[in-house]
Amino acid sequence: MAEQQNIEFIKSLYAAFGRGDIQALLNGLTENVEWHSPGPPDEMPWSGDRRGRQQVGQFFQLLDQHLTFEHFEAANFFAQGDHVVVLGSDGGKVKSNGRSWNVRWVHIHTINNGLVSKFEELFDTAKFLAVFKGSGPGKG
To answer: What pTM does this model have?
Structure first.
């Protein structure tokens, strides 16, 4: 039963993101949450490792500065113990160059005492970086 509760909890955090309620999402994280988004931070400013709610809040601010999401879908949820894995996709436009992206991703959440203590995402960073820099196949 705890695994299903963990899935429902993670679904609630995605719902908060979907409605733009980043504070509700941040409230679902531990104070010392570990957050990892792949990619070179010098080229994709939101990427890299962060620790704590404040730094994760900065992650979401940087996403908003640079990207416009046109779709975001958390499609499949799998749980084992305190881990929830989510398969999904998103897409939109890069604000600086108007190019479009679509990526599939995997998110891995670790839950401790009812809050997310660790988050890691995986996606094709090379494909996304090319679109972000304006050299990839995205439409302008």
So the answer is: 0.93
Domain count of the fold of the chain: 1
**Residues linked to residue 93 through DSSP beta bridges, in sequence order:** 68, 100
For residue 77, the domain's CATH number is: 3.10.450.50
In a domain, 72, yes or no: yes
Give the pLDDT means over successive 10-residue stretches in the chain (140 positions). 92 96 98 97 94 98 96 97 97 94 97 97 92 69
The rounded distance, in Å, linking the Cα atoms of 63 and 61 is 5
Sign of the CA dihedral running 45, 48, 50, 56: positive
- CA–chain centroid gap for 59, Å, is 9
Note whether residue 85 is domain-resident: yes
- Asked if 31 and 115 count as a contact pair (C-beta separation under 8 A), the reply is no
Contact indicator for 46, 64 with CB cutoff of 8 Å: no
